[in-house]
Structures are given as C-alpha cells and as structure tokens.
Design goal:
The protein contains three helices and two strands; from the N terminus they run ββααα. The chain is an alpha+beta fold and 76 residues long. Strand 1 and strand 2 form a beta hairpin. The longest helix has 16 residues. The protein starts with 6 loop residues before the first strand and ends with a helix.
C-alpha cells in the first residue's frame, strides 16, 4: 500500500536488541531476500549494519539494500 506508515520491527545485532521502523512492503521484501539467501534475518541485518555509513540509519540502509536487490533482479 502506498503511503503506509512504518512499523517498529525488532532485530538482534551482535547479541544486542534493536528496532527499525520499516513499511510492510520493505519488511516483507527484506524477509524474502533473507530466505532466498538461506540466511537468518538478523544475520543479514547485521551485515547491512556493518556496511552502512555513519550518516545512514539502519532502516534506511535496509531500504536501500532492498531497492538495490530489486533493481539487480530486474536488470536495472
């Protein structure tokens, strides 16, 4: 749904609980990507966390990861 508000989602990164606010569409696709890679969601989130820059929040980094994966899959 377009215009949907983000929802808080809980993750564990390196043994520490944290939360991110993501829209259902991004969360669903993030979970699909983790399953497609046969990886735990927290494992993929930790990898994204390590790759992101200091000026980028984790939720934004996850959205960008999802976007890049979709662009790659569609040949764009």
């Amino acid at each position: 749904m377009i215009g949907q508000r983000p929802k808080k989602r809980s993750l564990t990164l390196h043994g520490h609980r944290t939360s991110v606010s993501l829209e259902d569409a991004f969360w669903t696709e993030f979970r699909r990507l983790a399953a497609e890679q046969d990886r735990a969601l927290n494992e993929l989130a930790a990898e994204i966390d390590e790759m992101r820059g200091a000026d980028c929040g984790l939720a934004s980094a996850i959205r960008l990861y999802v976007l890049q994966a979709l662009k790659t899959a569609s040949g764009g």
